[in-house]
Known about the structure:
Layout: E1 5-9, H1 11-15, H2 17-22, H3 28-35, E2 45-52, E3 56-57, E4 65-66, H4 90-103, H5 108-119, E5 122-128, H6 147-151, E6 156-158, E7 165-169, H7 174-190, E8 195-199, E9 211-213, E10 216-218, H8 221-248, E11 255-261, H9 264-269, H10 274-279, E12 285-289, H11 300-307, E13 313-314, E14 317-318, H12 334-346, E15 352-355, H13 360-364, H14 371-376, H15 380-384, E16 388-392, E17 414-416, E18 425-431, E19 440-450, E20 460-463, E21 466-467, E22 470-480, E23 498-504, E24 511-515, H16 520-529, E25 552-562, E26 575-582, E27 594-596, E28 599-605
Parallel strand pairs: 1-2, 1-15, 2-5, 3-4, 5-8, 8-11, 11-12, 12-13, 14-15
Antiparallel strand pairs: 2-3, 6-7, 9-10, 16-28, 17-27, 18-26, 19-25, 19-27, 19-28, 20-21, 20-26, 22-23, 22-25, 23-24
Amino acid sequence: MKHRVIYNDDFRTIMSFDQAAYGEPSSVGEWRELIERVRGTGITSYVMDSIEFDNKVYFATKRGIDWANIDFDSFAGTGADGDTKWKGGDYSLAAQVMKEMRGDGHEPLQVFVDSCRDMGMEAIAGVRMNDCHGLQPLSTESPDVSLFLKEHPELALRYPGTDVPSRLADYGRQEVRDYRFGVIQELLETFDYDGIELNWLRFPLLFQPDYIQGSYAYITPDRFAELAPIITNWMCDIRAFMDELAAKNGKPRMCFGVRVPETPEIARNIGIDLPAWIHEAGLDYIVPSGFHATNFNIPVQQFKAICEGSECAVYPCMFPNVVHWPKTTRTYQTEVYAAAAQTYYGTGADGVEVFNHFHPACKTVGLPFNTEALNVIAAPESAARHPLHHYYIPFSVEPVDEPAQGFSSGYRGTRIPVAPLAQRRKFEFYFGDNLTDSGRKLDLLRFKIFDMSPDDAMPSVFLNNVRLTLQLSWRQRYLYQHTHMPKSGMPQPIVWKKIGWYTGARYEDLEQLAGEEIPDEEYQEALKIIDTPTYQRPEMRAAAAEGSEGGYGKDVFILVDAEVSSIPPTALRTGLNRLWVQVDKRRDDAMTDLYMGELEIVTVRLDAQT
Length: 610
């Protein structure tokens, strides 16, 4: 299989990056400089989004809608999708820069292709297949929606149980497939790309859904049998067109990749027949990926099994963050990239892809572009030379209901039962390191249990078959302002107005650790509300002040550290591992279940100073 390290970039974001950051117009030189930040790194292939938002394209088109020709400023004040995108926002800025570059005789995507050639990298066209950044209703005013769906609302997906059209197209309709195929043809005929990557995670909704979980649109097995062959044939048509185009131009065969959900089961449930796409449509690679964060538990071996008998490679995807928002999520840290790469390589990956590595938050907090990470992930050997910080989020990889899917403040945790040891709960995770002969050692094994109190029995923990010796400390976090559950029962996003972190070796000794200090009067008001055992957990967003405009809550959790010196190297295996957690008694007034928080595992070289 061909080894690739793929860099997947967002045209609109980096096109407006300099203007948004510095208030200065971008030039073709600055555009090229932003592209060539990856020069000299381990990147072999560069994917640039070229089509997104329902056939809005980043070039002078005759079939789609040219982003540069959209008058975004005219939507300011209309309330369409929120005004921050329009006048002076990144949408408008990107259009402005595109027009300025064309006025100077430069087509941005051609500059991209030329830069890739100069850097010795594959230039791959990225196509977001059904991007809307949400399942909002189809608005005739929003510039996010193309004329195609505005003129043909009958071709838009409906939310299950309603007749309200969304801004997503239904690939079950021939008209949709024909229209999108035509724009892809035009793109590949206009620019000398080395291949194309179809991004089915922006968004994972192909057909009229039978039901929706999180951001995923599921169809029944009967409808899969009906619809999957339709999209497979369409994929075959794209492959045939690419082969004909390459032959016509005397070029090598173009690579054909897809970005898909993180498990084969989810991919199938939304209508993707991966075996057929691989063996009939001739895919060269697949990129299994979390929706918007690195998932260390992508089942690489399952994807490899599907590719057996073909030349299709598997390149798992990683992000600069391990949960959706970069609060305390190890954002942009090389040791997390290294650990993810080591895990993927160790379970059979042929390479990796990085997505949103430019992450705007990195600029906001003053982080420089991380070229070190792009070198470290290039191969198992380079990853192994670096400290590895594994960061597992124990949520089911199955789609979950809102609000957990958004990861805006947390995740769907693994519930810990209150039961005898025979009924202990396991959390399975993949580990790519080999501590018995790799010259590395375990330096940290840590996780959280939410909603613990001194009146609960302390946990028993096993790593595979080894019982762990534990060191425990307490943490709590106060959250307030819009953390309540409205009477409608629909969760509202948490507004992180103020967050206070507290820590203590004993529950009764919790002290301020970091974050903005809560004013005393608000602190006292918070105490009135949170003096009951109804604790606020991120993944639950339980009611703290139902129906009120404000709301106070707190997370109380116990930080569980294993004494790593007592864990033999053979306890942590290469491949699939199991962490067993059990609590045999809860306090009498407990109103919620215990949930396990993120699992952190750090390994370092034996000669490293810790």
